[in-house]
């Protein structure tokens, strides 16, 4: 965990000292920021925090409400909850509520604590990767649908001309654009209509589709 930034939210001074000593023993280069209340942690949250150890018995937040408040403000930071007893049932409930892991105070050593934090960070990153992948797939599907709306359905009767519709975004990141074109045959010949919409992205593409239909 070299150089990793970790937040500890714990109101008991003895437990805070114990956790700090255990982590420093196995990961001396770790950056540990400690808070005694949830609100103070949220008010001064380190921007580079990679994981948080959260006590569920804080003065300003008890039980799962502490976890819910924390995740509402920093939803992407992995959480390892600290509980006082294994038989209180709060650990599994915390996992169901979005925590990456739970530890029982007094029943874990430095290596176990470090391993739990490391795995929590890895699982958190994997979850973010899955979310980003799903978002990218949804964007690709929406882009494909809008592209079909931007491509022309040539209104021509002549057999002397063939039209092969093709869409290629022109931006560096290949974002969906709003430009469109169409091919129409009239008594005076075959005409190419080109619409230039300033902008890139689904909103501009939707505007382009609407203009093309009009």
SSE diagram, text form:
Elements: E1 5-9, H1 13-26, E2 31-35, H2 38-43, E3 51-55, E4 57-58, E5 61-62, H3 64-73, E6 79-83, H4 90-96, E7 101-104, H5 110-150, E8 180-186, E9 189-195, H6 202-213
Parallel strand pairs: 1-2, 1-3, 3-6, 6-7
Antiparallel strand pairs: 4-5, 8-9
Helix pairs in contact: 1-5, 5-6
Supply database-style keywords:
five-stranded parallel sheet; two-stranded antiparallel sheet; alpha/beta; 214 residues; 2 domains; 9 strands; Rossmann fold; 42% helix
Give structural notes.
By secondary structure, the chain is α/β, with parallel strands linked by helices. It has two domains: 5-132, Rossmann fold (3-Layer(aba) Sandwich), CATH 3.40.50.2300; 151-213, no CATH class. Helices cover 42% and strands 20% of the residues. It has helices at residues 13-26, 38-43, 64-73, 90-96, 110-150, 202-213, and strands at residues 5-9, 31-35, 51-55, 57-58, 61-62, 79-83, 101-104, 180-186, 189-195. The strands form three sheets. A five-stranded parallel sheet has the order 2-1-3-6-7, sandwiched between helices. A two-stranded antiparallel ribbon has the order 4-5. A two-stranded antiparallel ribbon has the order 8-9. Helix 1 crosses helix 5 (110-150). The radius of gyration is 28 Å and the shape is rod-shaped. The mean pLDDT is 83.
The best one-word shape is rod-shaped
Taking all Cα atoms into account, the compactness measure Rg is: 28 Å
Q: Could you please say which CATH topology of the largest domain applies here? A: Rossmann fold
**Share in β-strands:** 15-25%
Q: Quick one: biggest sheet? A: 5 strands, parallel
| Sheet with most strands: strand arrangement | 2-1-3-6-7
CATH architecture name of the largest domain? 3-Layer(aba) Sandwich
Q: Quick one: CATH class of the largest domain?
A: Alpha Beta
Number of E strands: 9
Number of helices: 6
| Assembly state | single chain
What is the residue-averaged pLDDT? 83
Number of domains: 2
């Amino acid at each position: 965990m070299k150089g990793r930034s970790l937040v500890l939210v714990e109101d008991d001074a003895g437990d805070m000292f114990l956790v700090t000593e255990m982590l420093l023993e196995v990961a001396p280069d770790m950056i540990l920021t400690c808070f005694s209340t949830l609100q103070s942690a949220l008010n001064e949250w380190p921007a580079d925090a990679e994981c948080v150890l959260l006590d569920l018995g804080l003065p300003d937040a008890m039980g799962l409400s502490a976890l819910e408040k924390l995740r509402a403000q920093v939803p992407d930071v992995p959480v390892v909850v600290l509980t006082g007893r294994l038989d209180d049932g709060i650990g599994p409930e915390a996992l169901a509520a979005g925590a990456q892991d739970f530890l029982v105070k007094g029943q874990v050593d430095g290596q176990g604590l470090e391993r739990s934090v490391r795995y929590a960070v890895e699982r958190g990153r994997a979850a973010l990767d899955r979310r980003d992948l799903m978002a990218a797939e949804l964007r690709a599907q929406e882009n494909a649908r809008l592209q079909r709306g931007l491509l022309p359905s040539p209104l021509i009767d002549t057999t002397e001309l063939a039209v092969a519709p093709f869409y290629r975004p022109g931006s560096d990141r290949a974002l969906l654009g709003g430009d469109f074109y169409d091919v129409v045959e009239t008594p005076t010949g075959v005409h190419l209509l080109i619409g230039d919409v300033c902008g890139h992205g689904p909103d501009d593409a939707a505007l382009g589709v609407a203009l093309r239909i009009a």
